[in-house]
Amino acid sequence: MKFLRGIGVSRKTGNGSGGLWPSVFNVATKAEITTNATCGHTGRQEFCRMGEGASGKGRCGVCDGFSPDPGKRHPITNAIDDGPNKWWQSPALHYGNEYSYVTITLDLKQWIAYKSQRLVGLPPHPHPTLP
């Protein structure tokens, strides 16, 4: 097929129907990503992540965008960085109702037509238990 020359494709035959599928790649690697709120952007904030697995126990921690410790900074750029133990953290709702709606903007620097989208790992999270 001449129109597919230069585009990586693979043949999938899992259910016997076959077909050609484009190669999967991360379109966000060169994108610019911004948000209107990030945990710790104004200083030290506590957060709790929802529990995983059978125990259901959550994990709490501290965000601090000004900390020299990179493990305490969770900027939006971590959302498209595939580094280990990196993630973006929104502010907990405990810090204000303005964090009920957080906007994430991903500028791909080009026009792209797509049929579907899926964001993974963005469940709501409880506010931290503060003394």
Automatic annotation (TrEMBL):
Please give the superkingdom of this protein's source: Eukaryota
Answer whether the UniProt record assigns the keyword Disulfide bond to this protein.
yes
Entries under InterPro entries matching the protein: Laminin/Netrin_ECM (IPR050440), Laminin_N (IPR008211)
* Keywords on record: Disulfide bond, Laminin EGF-like domain
Q: Which PROSITE patterns match?
A: LAMININ_NTER
Domain annotation Laminin N-terminal: ranges: 16-131
Read off the Pfam families from this record. Laminin_N
PANTHER family, per database record: LAMININ SUBUNIT ALPHA-1-LIKE PROTEIN, NETRIN/LAMININ-RELATED
Q: What is this protein called?
A: Laminin subunit alpha-1-like
Which lineage is the organism of this entry classified under, starting from the top rank? Answer: Eukaryota, Metazoa, Ecdysozoa, Arthropoda, Hexapoda
